[in-house]
Amino acid sequence: MRLFYHPDTKDISLPGVLYALGDPIRLEIVKHLATEGEQPCAAVCEALGLAIAKSTMSHHFRVLREAGITCCRKEGTQHLNTIRRQDLEERFPGLLDVVLGCVQKAR
Amino acid sequence: MRLFYHPDTKDISLPGVLYALGDPIRLEIVKHLATEGEQPCAAVCEALGLAIAKSTMSHHFRVLREAGITCCRKEGTQHLNTIRRQDLEERFPGLLDVVLGCVQKAR
Hints:
The structure is a homodimer. Chain A is α+β, with helices and mostly antiparallel strands. Chain A has a single domain, classed as Arc Repressor Mutant, subunit A. Helix content of chain A is 57%, strand content 13%. Chain A has helices spanning 14-21, 24-36, 41-48, 54-66, 85-91, 95-106; strands at residues 39-40, 70-75, 78-83. Chain A has a three-stranded antiparallel sheet. In chain A, helix 2 (24-36) crosses helix 3 (41-48). Chain A starts with 13 loop residues before the first helix and ends with a helix. Chain A binds chain B through residues 13-24, 27, 91-95, 98-99, 101-103, 105-106, and chain B through 13-24, 27, 91-95, 98-99, 101-103, 105-106. Chains A, B: One of its GO terms (molecular function) is DNA-binding transcription factor activity. Chains A, B: Pfam families: HTH_20 (PF12840). Chains A, B: Keywords: DNA-binding, Transcription, Transcription regulation. Chains A, B: Residues 6-107 form the HTH arsR-type domain.
């Protein structure tokens, strides 16, 4: 069951993906999920040590989900997020890996 | 002589580049410049057949330039734009090529 809107793979747009990745916090979230696998929102915030409002973080997770970059499912009271690696690779081959590689370099 | 602000290569940021590319019109501009080489703004607008205001196009060219994706120089009354391929490749290897490849696929 999907409680949240997730675009179909074919509807994932390139400008949408690039826009969603075009923010330092969202890039950090994606990097963290790519490294750690499925994670609750709260754990991501804690791991990144970001002192920002919960509503701001929710916004960032929503932008990533609606762009087709992440998938979010509810388990109990937690929202668990994963990267849609296979869908992204199918739609835009190589893009996520190059971006993740650049995140490392950009530090 | 550079009339406009262009970030140094080392100051080109990944979120900034991704944000600038995260727009369908700017992606088309970049695609066109990558294919055709240096082009005046007016020629790009005409080639893309975009019926949008000149001020909107100027905004898009400015976002691309300030993100470090394009270089703009003035020659007579024309503003000539090129992609900063070498700078981008040095800063974020592979990124531009992957994105340009995805633009093709996204159509």
